[in-house]
Structures are given as structure tokens and as C-alpha cells.
Amino acid sequence: MNRRSLTAVFACVLSLSAPLAAEGTDDLIDEVRAVLDLPSARDSVDYSSLQGCVTRLTPDAPAHADVTMTTAFPPVSGGEMPPARLIEPAPAEADITHLRQFLRIEAQLSACDDLRREAAGRRLTVQTEGDLLTVLADERFVPEPPRPPRAEDEDALGLDRPARREVQIRLDLAGHDPGTPDGVFGPRTRSAIRDWQQDRNLPASGYIDNRQLSQLTAQTEEDYLQYREEGPRQTRRRNSGSNGIYWGRDGCPRYANGNIVPSYSFKCDVKGTFQLP
């Protein structure tokens, strides 16, 4: 760490308990405060793109009433951000004109690439006056990591036995062996779900929720449709390709002799070192 960095850190530590208005705007000090989970040293950021993100209402547009609302922007590192929220009027008191304005502003701000870059990792409280937006509050926001699915999340899907069997088939097509697809989620199926979640860098628990089920469905849709037409043997033969490479049940690509193809993933390379089946 250079001398400037040490000085900035020392100054930050000395001034942590001071009012925000007394803080400097040094980016390094702001980063130190973030590491310590303290509010930003800046009262607000000048969002030059804010007004340009919202298109003007046309003369014949339906009526819009002004609102106060919060909206958050994901940080560069990603994470789950809270949805936009109507503050004033209270949701129970809002009429169609308030909701129309709220949805209009939320949709346009969330789709504005310039603003998403400027406000990354921050939550804004915005007041509307027609097409004019005023930032009333601006704070750094650290999102909570995604919560792993729980048993009640899976129960809420209402999967009957045929639907559970389809999930097992899709797990198998994705390279994670759940055992015989019998529509019963036993220990082997739970292990297959957990392995699939970990391979996809998803919150892993061995249970599946609506979002993850959608991802598994999208990942395996082409193979699943082929499976229904041809059956498992023909589907796996089709997936092997003309070069003799096929996907093993562990999700690793393998040569016709069963050896793992290198450089696909760290997990597969480790298995390939020992040539695990």
C-alpha cells in the first residue's frame, strides 16, 4: 500500500464517527467505508443520465400522478436486489394514475444502461414531477446473497409424480444421475439436484424452486424433446456427436473410450486426472 493509500485509510478511520456532511469525497475512503459496512461518505452522486433515462409524456398519454419511490441497481459483482417500492402514496392508497407513473419510471430506469453503470450498487429514493425526477435519498446498498431453495419452495411448485419424473429425466440429461426416474425424490435425486446447482453456481440445497426449475428446463429443453421422440438410448447417441465425444452422467464430456475431455471445467479436469467414472 502506498503512502497516499495509508494516509487516506488513516483519515477515514479517524473520521468514521463524523457526520456524513463532514466527509470528503475521496473514492478510496468510500471504498474503505464499504469494506467496513458503513454508509457511503458521499451524500449523493450526480447522476448525469437520470433525466435522460425517462422519455417525455406525450400530450395524449393517459393521466399520471406524481409518486415517491425507491429503486435499486445491482452492483458490478451481482447479487439479488430488492424490487422497486412505492413509498408515497402508500400502495393501499394509490390509484391507477399513481401505479401508472410508478411502473413507467421503474421500467425506464431499470432499462437505462448509463444509469445502471452510474448507480451500480446504490439505492435511490426518487420523487417524480411529470418527467422531472429528483433524488431525495441515495445510499450504498449491499444485496443479500440468494437464499438456497427450501422444502417449502419445492412444495409450492405442486409437482405431481409425473412432473417429478420429468425433473429426474432432465437432471439425467444435464449430466447428473438421479437414479431410476420413478417420480420419487429420494437421496440420489437430492444429490443430483445439489450437484446440478453447484455446477451452475446456484444456491445449493438439494431442493428446487420455481426459478431453478425454469433454468433446468431451459438448459435441457432440446434434449428433453428429443428424449420424448426417440427414447434415452437414441438421445444419448445423438448427443455423442460425430466426433465420438459424449456427455457422461457426471456432466463431463468424454471420448468414445470413456476418458474425460480436458479443459472443460476444473471439476472434470480433476476427475480426468484420476479417470473417475
What does this protein structure show overall?
Helices cover about 40% and strands about 10% of the residues. It contains ten helices and six strands; from the N terminus they run ααββααββαααααββα. A four-stranded antiparallel beta sheet has the order 2-1-3-4, with helices on one face. α6 (about 160-175) packs across α8 and α8 packs across α9. The chain is elongated, with a radius of gyration of 26 Å.
**Low-confidence runs:** 1-25, 237-243
What integer value in Å does the Rg equal? 26 Å
Mean pLDDT: 77
N-to-C series of helices and strands: HHEEHHEEHHHHHEEH
Give the helix proportion (percent range): 40-55%
- Structural class based on helices, strands and sheet pairing: alpha+beta
Task: Tell me the β content.
Answer: 5-15%
Integer count of domains: 4
Shape: elongated
Number of helices: 10
The N- and C-terminal alpha carbons lie at a distance of 48 Å
